[in-house]
Amino acid sequence: MTDYNFAYLDEQTKRMIRRAILKGLAIPGYQVPFASREMPMPYGWGTGGVQVSAATLTPDDTLKVIDQGADDTTNAVSIRKFFEVTAGVTTTENTTEASVIQTRHRIPEAELRDDQILVYQVPIPEPLRFLEPRETETRKMHALEEYGLMHVKLYEDISQHGAIATSYAYPVKVEGRYVMDPSPIPKFDNPKLEMSAIQLFGAGREQRIYALPPYTKVESLDFEDYPFEATKADHACDMCGAENSYLDEVIMDDQGSRMFVCSDTDFCAGRQQAGHLGALAAVNAEDAA
Amino acid sequence: MTPLLKVQNIAKFYGNRIGCRDVNFDLYPGEVMGIVGESGSGKSTLLNCLAGHLVPDDGAVLFDTRTDGLKDTVTMPEPERRMLGRTDWAFVHQHARDGLRMNISAGGNVGERLMAVGARHYGNIRSDAIDWLGRVEINETRIDDHPTAFSGGMQQRLQIARNLVTGPRLVFMDEPTGGLDVSVQARLLDLLRGLVREMGLSAVIVTHDLAVVRLLADRLMVMKDGHVVETGLTDQVLDDPQHAYTQLLVSSVLQV
Lengths: 289, 256
Ligand SMILES: Nc1ncnc2c1ncn2[C@@H]1O[C@H](COP(=O)(O)OP(=O)(O)O)[C@@H](O)[C@H]1O
Ligand SMILES: [Mg+2]
Prior knowledge:
heterodimer; A: Rossmann fold; 3 domains; B: six-stranded mixed beta sheet; 10 helices; 40% helix; globular; binds adenosine-5'-diphosphate; nucleotide-binding (chain B); lyase activity (chain B)
């Protein structure tokens, strides 16, 4: 373990990343370029988030890593192991116990506190990329607040699908200034972007860091006659009965029977332990037994 | 009356080659200025200097801004100039693909300028788009098609709709009928003439086609080798050209 500098990156690099983070916090929603390092994992595995976490962690921190809400996927497990080995920090699956949470594609259901930091893995940080591939031009558009194109994208959505079909990476405007891609979280999570915790976003391949300080105003873009809706499957969790959590649809067998389960595994387990049971919880327990 | 546009001593060089130089004219509201000349005479260079796409090496382009009156657009801050570019000004390119978003539907193309200036009601944007498609003779059933599915003439009409939808106070056009078949050109010209009259457009139109200016322009500037060699009322210049080059230009057309 002592073969590594704390959290793998050397101190110079962490300092460089912290400067980018501080700048990001000072200009909420603004994409700060940083010199992304090679990490011992492929791009797409959260190298941006890992570098931000590495620069953020202290030996006293407790780390939680989730992927699509789950602590036990390959990606989450390997990142958690990476920091267990390189930083020796305590890890947890419990959202409330964690001081740093690295996430891919979800915001935990439990309300985060002002002593917690949420680190997002970001594949494509530029919300204007879809319509304007030229980096020089998108930078200028941000600088001059020329954001009409974002609504063109939503217009196209409605004209093709009859509603705003964008359900992930739903663009937001931060403090009435920068338009930001919240990373591919479901739009159900967008309202939670206004929270007490610090939120940091790291894009490794694209070499960008951006941030939301606590209590930052975050508005999801929409039209007056097609207002933003934080939708989810119209169902309760079949395991814990929760009605206000984001659900994954799980295929159960070859006959195509399905169940809906909280994507946040810690949240779901906590509720079940507290005695909340969903429609299929008993069936499932029997199967397991 | 204050001119809408006051062009003073514009010059643009490419290395030591002249793009255009010593260009002066005033454009008054509701006026259409035609700029003619053979290929390479500096028309596009001049137009791009006026529209803020190129930075001239010398001279001023004063525009009658809503808030501050006449103001040099060459030296104004870039955000202000870009703001003009999507509000009070419009630019119609010769090649529609340079002026359209080819991966966005026709309705989205027309709606973009509306959304750029803050339109946030989908239903209203869509009905404005339908209205404008109608005005440029594109069937509203094509509203969700991409411009790639349109003919050249339709693409050019779509580009015009996209530019005029916000009611710009000044329109720049570079060879708007260039590159189209003759029959398609005639229809587009008709349409443009109707719009110019109906909306009382102020415009600067660059073309090498004298038929275009005959139909659309109140006044004419004839360019050769980057210089203006003759200016005057369109009919006057075309019917009684004074400069030898203009005479050649007019007669070469008459021979056709
Ligand atoms: N980007 C450029 N670089 C160098 N020379 C150019 C460039 N654009 C135009 N020119 C030259 O400037 C002159 C005027 O060109 P242009 O304004 O395109 O004329 P027109 O539009 O009348 O055909 C020509 O001699 C042309 O070759
Ligand atoms: Mg030209």
